[in-house]
Amino acid sequence: MEPLLEVRNLTVRFPTDDGLLTAVDDLSFELFPGETLGIVGESGSGKSVTSMAILGLLPKYARIQGSIRFRGEELVGRVDQEMRNLRGRHIAMIFQDALASLNPVHRVGAQITEAIAVHAPELSDTAVRTRGLELLNLVGIPNPVDRYDQYPHEYSGGMRQRAMIAMSIANEPEVLIADEPTTALDVTIQAQVMEVIARIQQRTNSSMMLITHDLGVVAGAADRILVMYAGRQVETGLVDEVFYRPAHPYTRGLLASLPRLDRRREGQRLERIAGQPPSLLHLPAGCAFTPRCRYADASGMCGNRRPELHEVSATHSSSCHFADSLDSRADAS
Ligand code: SF4
């Protein structure tokens, strides 16, 4: 199957007063039709910069190398007008902060239908409004006729996020990029919003990049996972492979830090990954996870030699030098 979106050796750097900051470092992945790819990592791992690069929303001073292809067409280097034609219609984004992303002085219905009017100017005002009401109904907003003319402050947090989803799917894009779509919501609303996204994805058969720091969210929604650390891809595989046979110490640390009802013991604390991510201004020559890694090699191999992504199985890859022997190293330590 041909990928819908293909990212090859993407590197994004930003010039700063202290030197070049490498936000994304040699990242490669594909997104296939109808697939959901979960991109996981902590703040500063390069997840959101990657999505901004795909959408052509990075500032002009960003230095981008590598290739981003959508349906085989190169996106890197395209002019603003070309990217505007693509955004919303073919690739759309659900932003994480609905309150900040919705304009407080415009009615929600008008904001949702703006993208329809831009990409389909031949539609009448009545047809655009009808489509807006359909979208509100589709994302589960009660009383869409009344809600259409309300302002964002009259919506609850969960409803605002649903309105954001309605806005992003207005033109039934082939690729949806959901950047922490449930971060600001409580767990009940979070589940409802994820359910809405899954329903819409099924209906429109769109592919999705689900960007999150929450492994619980990807476990229920993604087909494959890509784990990022310090701008680099450290592990990728099918959801079950990564959850049940993690092949990178960082992924193991993330999974161990999750609360689990089946492992709860009185007084037991959650595990944590000690230390902090490295400065993106001065990335180490070897593995960026070395200072925090309890599997690191004492001979200095980890600190000096950059590990390349290599296959653990046909569908599972890791960029740890010791991906194949982590269990025995854990027993020995
Ligand atoms: Fe840890 Fe070394 Fe593997 Fe990096 S390469 S994750 S430091 S064991």
How are the SSEs ordered, and which strands pair?
Blueprint: E1 5-16, E2 19-31, E3 36-40, H1 47-55, E4 63-70, E5 73-74, H2 80-86, E6 91-94, H3 98-101, H4 108-119, H5 125-138, H6 144-148, H7 157-168, E7 175-179, H8 187-204, E8 207-212, H9 215-221, E9 224-229, E10 232-238, H10 239-244, H11 249-256, H12 301-304, E11 310-313, E12 316-318, H13 326-332
Parallel strand pairs: 3-8, 3-9, 6-7, 7-8
Antiparallel strand pairs: 1-2, 1-4, 4-5, 9-10, 10-12, 11-12
Helix pairs in contact: 4-5, 4-7, 5-7, 7-8
The protein binds iron/sulfur cluster (SF4).
Iron/sulfur cluster is lined by residues 248-249, 287, 289-290, 293, 295-297, 302, 307, 320-322.
Structural overview:
This protein is α/β, with parallel strands linked by helices and 333 residues long. The chain has two domains: 5-222, P-loop containing nucleotide triphosphate hydrolases (Rossmann fold), CATH 3.40.50; 232-259 and 271-332, no CATH class. 34% of the residues lie in helices and 23% in strands. It has helices at residues 47-55, 80-86, 98-101, 108-119, 125-138, 144-148, 157-168, 187-204, 215-221, 239-244, 249-256, 301-304, 326-332, and strands at residues 5-16, 19-31, 36-40, 63-70, 73-74, 91-94, 175-179, 207-212, 224-229, 232-238, 310-313, 316-318. The strands form two sheets. Strands 6-7-8-3-9-10-12-11 form an eight-stranded mixed β-sheet, sandwiched between helices. Strands 2-1-4-5 form a four-stranded antiparallel β-sheet. Helix 4 packs across helix 5, helix 4 (108-119) runs parallel beside helix 7 and helix 5 (125-138) packs across helix 7 (157-168). The longest helix has 18 residues, at 187-204. The radius of gyration is 21 Å and the shape is globular. The termini are far apart. Bound molecules: iron/sulfur cluster. Iron/sulfur cluster (SF4) binds next to loops.
